[in-house]
Amino acid sequence: MIECRAPGKLYLAGEYAVLSPGRPALIIAVDRFARVRVTDAATTTVNTDLCAGHEHSIARDGDQVRLRHHDRPADQLAPVAAAIAIVERPVRERNLPLRPGHIEISTDLHGTGGRKLVLGSSAAVTVAVIDALSRHHDLRLPPAHRYRLAMLASMTADPHCSGGDLAAATFGGIVRYQRPDPRALRMPPGWTVDDALRRPWSGLSITPVEIPPGLRIEVGWTGTPARSSERVALLYSRGGTEDPRLQQLDQLRTLDHDVSRWPVADAAELPPAARAPHLSAS
Fold it and tell me: How far is CA 21 from CA 17, 200, 203, in A?
């Protein structure tokens, strides 16, 4: 049996500026998690509290994976299906046997009644599933490779995603993050996952940092959920990251100068939610 977890996140700054190449965001992991357990089984199935605990079967079509419940598509579990598919690719490409498993997923990244708190639940689930399944198949992937797999999986559903939530879920603690240039993620025909793991991802920067002593982070919530994917789509419909209004947000340059003075942390020493704020929102 394999058990893994990945934390949710909060953007301290740069949630939309990070969509522009070379612009940083500062992201902190929180002490709420997505948890995944994988046990050996005759066939691969998924059980998750994201869908009232219903069990889902897997339908494969080439490199694609879809989850179904009583022959009905489970589109809300597309991130889980993409995570399963991206881990199975290197297993097949390396001529390793696929090991069926029962995948159990649970999270505490939502409020009472399932209210969305915008803590990156989809990203945390994606990262935790990739971590658990890669261990289940004994792929021995370092965090940087798990992040890359999570980014490739997420882009199948949202090609505009920045990946900052994936970086926080993978490395934990606090990270200064710059997204890779989207052109670096355009894989050539016949690409393999190992190709994607080896090739340079220009623009990508993930630097763990520590909070300076005496700095206190207070977390508030408006009480109204918002979907980041919808906000990003709206941004691109209005000119994308070249929108002059976005280009005027130069305060991030000042932020980045200040953050550059913060101590750099060793990612290997950071627990999944090091010094993360405790969230009591309900």
Answer: 9, 15, 7
Distance between first and last Cα of the chain: 32
pLDDT digits (tens, 9 = 90+) for 194-253: 999 988 999 999 999 887 778 787 777 777 766 666 666 666 565 555 555 555 544 445
User: Measuring CA to CA, which residue among 89, 86, 107 is closest to residue 33?
Assistant: 107
Count other Cβ atoms within 10 Å, centred on residue 7. Answer: 30
The pTM is what? 0.82
Sign of the dihedral through C-alpha 82, 83, 84, 88: positive
Residue type, 191: W
- As given in the structure block, the two tokens for residue 51 are 């869908």
Q: Extract the tokens encoding 196.
A: 């994607």
DSSP 8-state class, residue 198:
H
Residue with tokens 């690719």: 89
- DSSP 8-state code for residue 254: H
Is there a contact between 253 and 17 (Cβ–Cβ < 8 Å)? Answer: no
Count the alpha carbons within 13 Å of 237 in the hemisphere toward its beta carbon. Answer: 6
10-32: per-residue pLDDT in tens? 998 888 888 887 889 999 999 99
